[in-house]
Amino acid sequence: MIIQEVISLIEDFAPTKYAEDFDNVGLLVGDSNSEVKGALITLDTLEATVDEAISKNCNLIISFHPIIFSGLKKLTGRNYVERTVLKAIKNDIAIYAIHTALDNQHKGVNDMIAEKIGLINRKILIPRKDSIKKLTTFVPAKEADKVRKSLFEAGAGNIGNYDHCSFNITGKGSFKGNENSNPVVGEKGQIHFEEEMQIGVTYAAHLESKILEALFNAHPYEEVAYEVHTLENTNQHLGMGMIGELESETDEKSFLSQLKDTFRSGCVRHSKLLNKPIKKVAVLGGSGAFAIENARAAGANIFVTADLKYHDFYKAEEKLVLADIGHYESEQFTKKLLYSFLSKKISSFALILADTNTNPIHYL
Length: 364
Description:
By secondary structure, the protein is an alpha/beta fold.
């Protein structure tokens, strides 16, 4: 396999279309047409990670965090980012990062955290907007089944637990082709009326090029009449964070103690305990202070995240408990998630979980 084929598999699972605007995802270093000898899967790409890739004959590093986050103006080895990139280039090692594209996936980072905690009845904490589109097209009635089938095969018409969803209205369309036209029905230069069906389907935004290609290939007309709109609807299967419930409620101290053990945290920083049972739990891996209000509004008893600053803890306002388990600790199982997915898809080369501990924080 070449690198691009591996990338396509990853992005079928976690499309980079849904990465946050501030992020830097995708192939960061290397040639996408290079053949893959082995792939090292890691949370972070550091010099030590590149060394491990070299020692294990891997020429592709699949990383959760991007080593290049903001623009690089020089490559002189003056800091850890430049040294890592230089070492990768010198040893012909490609680096790919997925980051917030995987954060936003329903079965991504936060689902892993929820699974480790044991949450049931899970749903997205902050459903993503601008990720659902609607296609409306007009087709001769006798060709409607063919076009509709083609759209479904391309991925249109999926709504939650349902597929093959569409709305269809019959009517009469009119057109008149000019001297350069080549109409499938009717005559050029003459107004023609045709029994048509209006087909409406929704689809995930990242599938747009595939959906339109299917439409143009299946539609019989020389000029295809269609409309595309981005919907305001939120996507209940895509977005940041997750909220769920414990099978049975527990007290705050027991829950915090469990968090510390499960995530092997050096410590768990938390806001004031409220002496209330814990049943409903919100989670968000990595830096999650921006979602405190969302967790409160969703009725969470506790919000598990990382990188909370001093003043962030005030935002609990004695409505819920905030628990900071550490950035690395909250995302440490992500590489296993990627490994588990890819190992079911790839058997042509070695997939290796990185042994290098990239956590920059240590505890006494």
